[in-house]
Protein: sn-glycerol-3-phosphate transport system permease protein UgpA
Organism: Tepidicella xavieri
Amino acid sequence: MQRKVIFPNRWLPYMLLAPQLAVTLVFFIWPSAQAVMMAFQQQDPFGLAVQWVGLENFHAVLTDPAYYDSVVRTLVFSTAVTVLALAPALALAVAADALIRGRGAYTTGLMVPYAIAPAIAGVLWLFMFNPAIGVVSYGLRSAGVAWNPTLDGTDAMILVILASAWKQIAYNFLFFLAGLQSIPKSLLEAAAIDGASPWHRFRTIIFPLLSPTTFFLLVVGLVYAFFDTFGVIHAVTAGGPAKATEILVYKVYYDGIVALDLGSSAAQSVLLMLLVIGLTLVQFRFVERRVHYS
């Protein structure tokens, strides 16, 4: 027998929704509208003199070679972060799901990195890989590997990729583990009785049934790599050395807050939003075809 919930007051549902709607309006809708408006304006750093310039900001951004370098850098960075955050998370989830004892402690330990703020996570990795005092850097030098993310752009990019991916692994792990636990054990037991190896069971049963979870995490991971990695980059490299780690979201910050070019920064934020929307639509158009919702 299904129970139907009836609110005693017709305004109660709207009152319950009001706080979330207010937060969305104040912190998301209003700033986004302001950014779109500023993208068509030119103003001084204090906002005292505002001039409507139309598409000039977009033209200046799209004709700047440094912007296209940042686009390529962002695509490489986001792809690496997404892949490196998904693959280990899936492997850890499979290992945790196979445990009989200690699964709760194992799961709790793996969730700790997600509770760490991005800036703190970046500082932790910066200390480990610091060329002067870092433990990992000392090991690399002992092995004959030259490592200096403060001077070498490739080393700096590798460092921020690893730190950003490590921060997201816990989030992906939690969803993969929930997906694995929802798979009927009878399917795996039947396949094992038929002689299917563990790898064959994973490839033909487990991973196809995890495809909705994988697709969801792929979209979330892309958005995370484009936007939420700002704290890591700002704490570790501040976009350096020589702008080697200046991805699009950090370029928006630098041009707007540091260089005080508010019009260009706003135009870049609009273009970044359109780029992420476009990539998400491509994922839904092509990747989702391989997703099995059954």
